[in-house]
Amino acid sequence: MQGLIWSLCALLCLSLWEESHCRSSRNIRSVNEPSLLRTKRALQDTDAKKCSYTFLVPEQRITGPICASTTGPEPDKDRVTRMDISDVREVLNKQRREIETLQLVVEVDGNLVNEMKLLRKESRNMNSRVTQLYMQLLHEIIRKRDNSLELVQLENRVLNVTSEMMRLASRYKELEARFATMAGVVNNQSILISALEEQCLRTLGRSELPPVPPLVQVVPENIPIDNRFTNEIVTKNQAFSRASRRESPTRSPFGMDPPPPQGTLTSDGPFKDCYQVRQAGYTTSGMYLLKTDNSEQLIQAWCEHGLDNGGWTVLQRRRDGSVNFFRNWENYKKGFGNIDGEHWLGLQNIFNLAKQGDYRLMIELEDWAGKKVYAEYSSFHLESESEGYKLRLGTYQGNAGDSFSSNNGKAFTTLDRDKDTFSGNCAHYHKGGWWYNACGQTNLNGVWYSGGVYRSKFQDGIFWADYGGGFYSLKCVRLMIRPID
Ligand SMILES: [Ca+2]
């Protein structure tokens, strides 16, 4: 029963499908392309006449729709597909190539991006470095501005100090000029006072007073000035008391009881003079043993090798007032003092030395400002003791002025042996021993006064009239001889 129902239903369905299919086939044909019409013309002729029917009898239960095709495989459609495939392949290849190109571009872009990143990083670093440098520059500018301010301040201070110095220098010059004027006044007043004192004593009836030697009135334009000058006026008594305190080493006159040698440089010798010492190769100034050609007497003398190629035999030296030079004939004949300090070599020794050949004399003077000047005489010798050790000098040259030529040809005078040309004894007034005239322009064996200008009844200081006048006592003095070159 059921199978019969199924068969009927199937038949009904087929008839309905046949009718609609035939109708639709005709519709399809009307809209198909001409090429399809051409290829199917033979079939269409037959289709128009009859329809083919196929009966499907389900032997088993059908679970889905039944499909049937009235047309077979179409070979044209297959050919198109291959072309399409080749086209597609071509397109694919093209796309692949494009992709590869794009990949290359991407790679390049990637590199560019990396490079850009690096550049950005570098740029950031540069920016920070520039900022840092800018800050440094600002700091530097500020510092320099400060420095320039400081510099300006310093310049101002230097200018102030300079103007102050100039003011002080001009003030100093004024004072120097006033000092020179006052020194001249002191010198002349001392002379006037002495003259008045003498006149006074004579008026009082003491005409038996011995005459006083004329005082040196030379007042040079430039009195030596000492920066450390204390204006200390030492009286002759004070000077003598100081000198006598220091004179212990000189109580035994040199030559009779010579002081112990102090640092004698060599046991070589004795030498004829210091020039021979220098020629023997000794270049250090100091004490050397001498023996003159015409005497058996050994002489300790100071050889000066530091001045004008050396070879100078020192005859006399003053420098600190440590030795009293107010002595008798015997002392001046034999010599006294300390060879390495103040001393007098002795008239007999000087006579013997100078007799050996042609010698020249150098007198070195140093004032209280430390300035040194000199007077040199082209020849020098003494006459014998029987002639009173008369002085024989050559011509002068130097920058101290010639205050010694007036003593040329004069005999040596001490307190106990008056050989000068003055009515009285010059040694008494000048407190020393010297080749006095009446009494002369120089007194290098006088009293050693401290400070330069001194005040005394007589001109008894260590003076050189042409350098400082009669009332300026020099600080250091040396008399030296050397053979004429
Ligand atoms: Ca006399």
From TrEMBL:
<dbReference type="GO" id="GO:0060216">
    <property type="term" value="P:definitive hemopoiesis"/>
</dbReference>
<dbReference type="GO" id="GO:0001525">
    <property type="term" value="P:angiogenesis"/>
</dbReference>
<dbReference type="InterPro" id="IPR002181">
    <property type="entry name" value="Fibrinogen_a/b/g_C_dom"/>
</dbReference>
<feature type="region of interest" description="Disordered">
    <location>
        <begin position="238"/>
        <end position="270"/>
    </location>
</feature>
<dbReference type="GO" id="GO:0005576">
    <property type="term" value="C:extracellular region"/>
</dbReference>
<protein>
    <submittedName>
        <fullName>Angiopoietin-like 1</fullName>
    </submittedName>
</protein>
<keyword id="KW-1015">Disulfide bond</keyword>
<dbReference type="InterPro" id="IPR036056">
    <property type="entry name" value="Fibrinogen-like_C"/>
</dbReference>
<dbReference type="InterPro" id="IPR037579">
    <property type="entry name" value="FIB_ANG-like"/>
</dbReference>
<dbReference type="GO" id="GO:0045747">
    <property type="term" value="P:positive regulation of Notch signaling pathway"/>
</dbReference>
<dbReference type="InterPro" id="IPR014716">
    <property type="entry name" value="Fibrinogen_a/b/g_C_1"/>
</dbReference>
<dbReference type="Pfam" id="PF00147">
    <property type="entry name" value="Fibrinogen_C"/>
</dbReference>
<feature type="signal peptide">
    <location>
        <begin position="1"/>
        <end position="22"/>
    </location>
</feature>
<dbReference type="GO" id="GO:0007596">
    <property type="term" value="P:blood coagulation"/>
</dbReference>
<keyword id="KW-0175">Coiled coil</keyword>
<dbReference type="GO" id="GO:0002244">
    <property type="term" value="P:hematopoietic progenitor cell differentiation"/>
</dbReference>
<keyword id="KW-0325">Glycoprotein</keyword>
<feature type="coiled-coil region">
    <location>
        <begin position="151"/>
        <end position="178"/>
    </location>
</feature>
<keyword id="KW-0732">Signal</keyword>
<keyword id="KW-0964">Secreted</keyword>
<feature type="domain" description="Fibrinogen C-terminal">
    <location>
        <begin position="265"/>
        <end position="485"/>
    </location>
</feature>
